[in-house]
Each structure stands twice: as C-alpha cells, then as structure tokens.
Design brief:
seven-stranded mixed sheet; about 350 residues; 2 domains; D-Maltodextrin-Binding Protein, domain 2; about 35% helix; single chain
Length: about 350
C-alpha cells in the first residue's frame, strides 16, 4: 500500500507551530514581561531573553517565577538554538536556551557566546524513527537508506553516534538535511526511510501511530541542554546580576516541572497546540527528567567530544576548545553533571 502523500493536518499543524529546541530559522515575535506581566516591572533594567514556543517563559509563568521581578524581560521567540545563538552573537539577545549541539556549531563559526548553565536529562526522546510499515528492524539496516535530520541539531549528533554504535559511518547513509516541518512531510509521505529527531516530535509521531523508534540516544548521547549568554552582557554588572537571578528562577521552575508533570503538560499543550496526551508523553520521556547541573569539566569534556566529531567529519570549519566558550560563575552549589536524570513521577 502506498503511504499518503501528505501528513494529516492534525499531525502536521502542531508540529509546524512548535518552535523546536535545536534547529530551524528565527521566528518573528517579541514581548515584554515582568512583575507578573507588568511591562513596567520594578526597575529600569531590561534583560533580553531568547526563547522558544512552550519554552522558558511558559514554564516560568506556570511555576510562578515571574511574579516578583525587579527587572523587565523582553522575550524574543526563535524556532531553534542556531538562530538564537546568532542573535546572542549579534548582541540582540542577552541569554537564551539551546540544546547540546548548536553551541558547538556556533563556536566553530567563531560566534561570541558563553555557556552559563546546564541541565541533564534522559535522551529517550532523541530517536531515529521509521514508519510503522518499514522493514527496518535495527540500526545496521540503515546502510544505504535516506535519513532526514536537522543540520546542527542534537539529533544530528545522535544520528552520528547511533550509526557508529551500529558499525556504520555517516557516509553510509543518504543524509537529507531538513527542518522538522519538512522532515515530517518527507517522513509521512515515504520520501525518506528514517527521521532523526527529538521530543516532542518523537512523542507526536509515536502517539499518532505514524512511526516507531528504531533506536534512541539513551546512554549514547549526553542529554545536556544549556543556557547561553552574550559575553558583553556578562561584563555589565547589573545585567550579569539579572542573568544570575533569571537562571535561579529557571532552576526553581524545572523543579516545579518535576513535581507537577501533569500541570506542566497542560500548560505546554496549550502554549504549543500539542494534544495533552502528546505533551504528557514528552514530559515523561524527556522534559520532566531534567536536573540542573554545574557547567563543569564533565560537561566540557562531553561537549568537546561532540565538537571533535563534527570537526573530524568536516561539518564545522575548525577545531574548537569548548572550554573557551564556558563561564562557570553561575554554578553555585549545583550538583556535578554526572547527576542522574530524574524519572517521571505522578503528581500527588
């Protein structure tokens, strides 16, 4: 039987609306929030924060962590880490959240960025998906097959790592660099054999029964995500203090997600247009497992491995020392990065 030529609208629309965590192009949209939505806030300082749909602003509001700011936040919305880091390099954004691979590509391009905070979670949602009717049963069978992936995304490295574990090289597959909306269309129409992607896309495809997991990144990739800042903003004492306060609020909000996964899934679903069940699956699999950790030597070593891999494959133009792009002043008393990710818990 031939697969449908186009993805069903109910599947495609929420995914197209999502601003993906790791790849894509920038999206228009700026808003100012502070003092619980009071655009005046308390004080004259404005912190420019890069965000994604259903990202930092949504979780901070849900957790009540925007209720007593003594500075204003100007939110700029992006589809991904790469354009957000471009904005940081251009001094248009002071701080923003990204995945584990975009800073490697930005550093390789010579961008001025500083990684200032990290979280560690499971990588179950970082998966290589195949259509339900696919004959492929194990990663070794990807040899000679076409695989969609977003260039420079966390899925990009997960794909490389999965291939190497299976005894394959990156050039053993036919890579198709596609952003998520285009990759979804190609995947559901049978134009590619597999799709390397991350949550909530993984949960969306599985819930819709349009595909299954061939392999995932659990135990294979580092499960890290970051907050990156503009070095110039960190040289400003007042802005650096605001960044420190913002990062602490994010840490408290992440703890709130862990304690209230169902409540967060409802907020996330409303903010992104995802069905609640899909959002909850993604919280169980990935989003709710994150633990704030120190940006330490383990983080630097793990990210250096990613950077060296992309350099070896000539996918970034030069070798970088990831430690040169790290600022550890905001670590505080956070646990080391070897801390195990949390497992999903039901609300009491």
């Amino acid at each position: 039987m031939r697969r449908p030529r186009h993805a069903p609208a109910l599947l495609l629309l929420p995914l197209a609306l999502l601003l993906a965590a790791c790849s894509g192009t920038s999206s228009a949209g700026t808003s100012i929030g502070g003092g619980g939505g009071d655009t005046d806030g308390k004080g004259s300082l404005t912190l420019d924060v890069g965000d994604q749909k259903g990202g930092s602003e949504a979780v901070l509001r849900a957790a009540g962590e925007l209720d007593d700011l003594d500075y204003k936040i100007r939110w700029s919305t992006f589809t991904s880490g790469p354009p957000l880091l471009e904005a940081i390099n251009a001094k248009a954004v002071d701080v923003g959240g990204i995945g584990n691979t975009p800073p490697v590509f930005a550093a390789g391009a010579g961008s001025k960025i500083s990684v200032v905070a990290a979280t560690h979670g499971t990588a179950n949602g970082d998966a290589i998906l195949v259509p339900d009717g696919s004959p492929l049963q194990k990663p070794q069978e990807l040899k000679g097959k076409s695989v969609a992936v977003a260039q420079g995304s966390s899925a990009h490295f997960q794909l490389i790592a999965s291939l190497r574990k299976a005894g394959l090289d990156f050039n053993d597959i036919k890579v198709k660099y596609l952003q998520p909306a285009d990759a979804l269309a190609a995947f559901t129409s049978g134009k590619v054999d597999a799709w390397a992607v991350w949550d909530p896309y993984t949960s969306q495809v599985l819930h819709s029964k349009k595909g299954r997991v061939l392999t995932d990144g659990d135990g294979l990739v580092n499960g890290l995500a970051f907050q990156a800042a503009a070095p110039g903003a960190l040289k400003d004492k007042k802005k650096a203090a605001a960044v420190a306060d913002y990062l602490e609020r994010l840490r408290k909000a992440q703890d709130w997600v862990y304690k209230h996964p169902e409540a967060w899934a409802k907020v996330w679903a409303k903010d992104t247009g995802l069905p609640y069940e899909v959002a909850l699956d993604a919280v169980r699999r990935t989003n709710g497992t994150r633990v704030p950790v120190a940006v330490d030597k383990n983080v630097i070593t793990s990210e250096q491995e990613i950077a060296d891999t992309f350099t070896e494959l000539e996918l970034i133009p030069r070798r970088i020392d990831f430690g040169d792009f790290v600022d550890t002043r905001f670590n505080g008393d956070l646990p080391p990065s070897t801390t195990e990710p949390r497992t999903y818990r039901k609300e009491s």
